């Protein structure tokens, strides 16, 4: 059931509520014997085979597999403290049925960051996107009002708009039906003589849309609206800290980079949420720009914020300083990251494309004073690209390991508290 379109500007709440603070300390993994892990993995795969035998596209498969999905969800126990907890089983990262269930319960229920306000700065600006099976278009109409719609023609379901840019109306490329930017159908070609047909009833299906700071949010919801504000739903008590940390609208958009990665979307999130654990081993170049001794993680309701001071390289001999004196890495459940460091902010939107594939959209924003410094921008983007490619390698490696019969569940280190928090939030959304 579609809900009414809504556009809201979110005011960051204040004051901030108390939050827990974790200072990072690394502990060793507790080893689980290979044979017991393998047995557990085999047992789980057998369960999955027994219950999940229909093609994922079959509607009845969702009902058929409810029992096995429930079993998979309950394999992770959020009540167990991180010190003793096991990670979720590998089927959370590999199973087709689980993936489809996850789209419904994790992605279609809450606010999703889908773009930034500069993309719809002027009247008639629009952009499109896809989240799971949801095709959407966001636009600003002739009155300056922001709208979100399912990007699907009411005639025979063709995708209506493509790309981004400016349009005075949306003309379907298939048979020419034409919609206003407010979603109403204004022309249905060659429909003369068709009975019980009303243009008014064939408009685009609306989605809820909102703005917070520089971000455009969208909500695909099948639930009755809660009374909470969009800010409290999306950011909770972290909104004030993000605003104070320089996450705001004064930065200039520089560019977008997209990476398709052969891994489940959660593998990328997990990698982001390990409290800097992998940095000394996998990002040696980045390490010299960060003082990992100062790494800290703060947990909020649906947000975690990792912070770290700049390292020895900060403001080095040649004056190049991409990271600045402090870096802030905010994870907004379930799939959006805001990285604020030095004069830069970049955002990472992790879009699931299947159980073992995702796309990560990086948008880069820079302090206006440096927006014309091409050398600085080029070098910063090259450094960022190198780190990103290192992470791509790590994530694809983990996905292959998750699919191996040798692995089912792992352990957390204390620095990975944000990852554990992420998994607890997932469990909360996924439980039946
Ligand atoms: S599908 Fe859009 S006009 Fe036919
Ligand atoms: Fe990394």
Automatic annotation (TrEMBL):
Report the protein's function: Catalyzes the first step of the osmoprotectant glycine betaine synthesis.
What GO MF annotations does this protein's record show?
2 iron, 2 sulfur cluster binding; choline monooxygenase activity; metal ion binding
The EC code for this enzyme is 1.14.15.7
What superkingdom does the record give?
Answer: Eukaryota
Q: Which CDD domains match?
A: RHO_alpha_C_CMO-like
**Which co-factor is required?**
Fe cation; [2Fe-2S] cluster
Q: What is this protein called?
A: Choline monooxygenase, chloroplastic
Could you say which protein family the record assigns here? Belongs to the choline monooxygenase family.
Q: What compartments host this protein?
A: Plastid, Chloroplast stroma
What species does this protein belong to? Eruca vesicaria subsp. sativa
Q: What is its main location?
A: plastid
Main enzyme class: oxidoreductase
Pathway assigned in UniProt: Amine and polyamine biosynthesis; betaine biosynthesis via choline pathway; betaine aldehyde from choline (monooxygenase route): step 1/1
The record's keywords, sorted A to Z, are: 2Fe-2S, Iron, Iron-sulfur, Metal-binding, Oxidoreductase, Transit peptide
Location of the Rieske domain: 111-218
Q: Quick one: where's region Disordered?
A: 1-25
Q: Which reaction does it catalyse?
A: choline + 2 reduced [2Fe-2S]-[ferredoxin] + O2 + 2 H(+) = betaine aldehyde hydrate + 2 oxidized [2Fe-2S]-[ferredoxin] + H2O
List the Gene3D superfamilies hit by this protein, alphabetically: Naphthalene 1,2-dioxygenase Alpha Subunit, Chain A, domain 1, Rieske [2Fe-2S] iron-sulphur domain
One GO cellular component assignment for this chain's record is: chloroplast stroma
Q: Which PROSITE patterns match?
A: RIESKE (PS51296)
């Amino acid at each position: 059931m579609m809900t009414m379109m809504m556009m809201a500007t979110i005011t960051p709440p204040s004051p901030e509520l108390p939050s827990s603070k974790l200072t990072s300390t690394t502990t060793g993994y507790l080893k689980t014997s290979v044979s017991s892990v393998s047995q557990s993995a085999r047992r789980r795969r057998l369960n999955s085979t027994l219950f999940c035998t229909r093609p994922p596209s079959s509607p009845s498969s969702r009902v058929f597999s409810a029992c096995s999905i429930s079993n998979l969800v309950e394999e992770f126990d959020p009540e167990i403290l991180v010190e003793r907890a096991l990670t979720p089983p590998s089927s959370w990262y590999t199973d087709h049925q689980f993936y489809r269930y996850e789209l419904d319960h994790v992605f279609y229920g809450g606010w999703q960051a889908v773009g930034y306000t500069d993309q719809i700065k002027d009247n008639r600006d629009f952009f499109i996107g896809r989240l799971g099976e949801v095709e959407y278009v966001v636009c600003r109409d002739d009155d300056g009002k922001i709208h979100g719609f399912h990007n699907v023609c009411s005639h025979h379901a063709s995708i209506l708009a493509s790309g981004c840019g400016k349009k005075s109306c949306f003309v379907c490329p298939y048979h020419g039906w034409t919609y206003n930017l407010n979603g109403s159908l204004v022309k249905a070609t060659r429909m003369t003589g068709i009975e019980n047909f009303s243009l008014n009833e064939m408009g685009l299906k609306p989605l809820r849309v909102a703005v917070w700071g520089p971000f455009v949010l969208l909500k695909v919801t099948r639930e009755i609206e809660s009374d909470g504000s969009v800010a409290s739903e999306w950011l909770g008590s972290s909104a004030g800290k993000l605003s104070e940390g320089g996450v705001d609208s004064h930065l200039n958009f520089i560019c977008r980079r997209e990476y398709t990665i052969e891994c489940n979307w959660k593998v990328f999130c997990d990698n982001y949420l390990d409290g800097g654990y992998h940095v000394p081993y996998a990002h040696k170049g980045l390490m010299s720009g960060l003082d990992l001794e100062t790494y800290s993680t703060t947990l909020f309701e649906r947000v975690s914020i990792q912070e770290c001071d700049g390292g020895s390289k900060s403001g080095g001999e040649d004056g190049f300083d991409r990271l600045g004196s402090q870096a802030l890495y905010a994870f907004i459940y379930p799939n959006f990251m805001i990285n604020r460091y030095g004069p830069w902010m970049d955002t990472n939107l992790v879009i699931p494309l299947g159980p073992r594939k995702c796309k990560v959209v990086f948008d880069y924003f820079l302090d206006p004073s440096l927006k014309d410094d091409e050398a600085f921008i080029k070098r910063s983007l090259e450094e960022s690209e190198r780190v990103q490619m290192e992470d791509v390698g790590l994530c694809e490696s983990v996905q292959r390991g998750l699919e191996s019969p040798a692995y089912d569940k792992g352990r957390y280190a204390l620095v990975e508290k944000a990852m554990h928090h992420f998994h607890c939030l997932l469990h909360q959304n996924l439980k039946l």
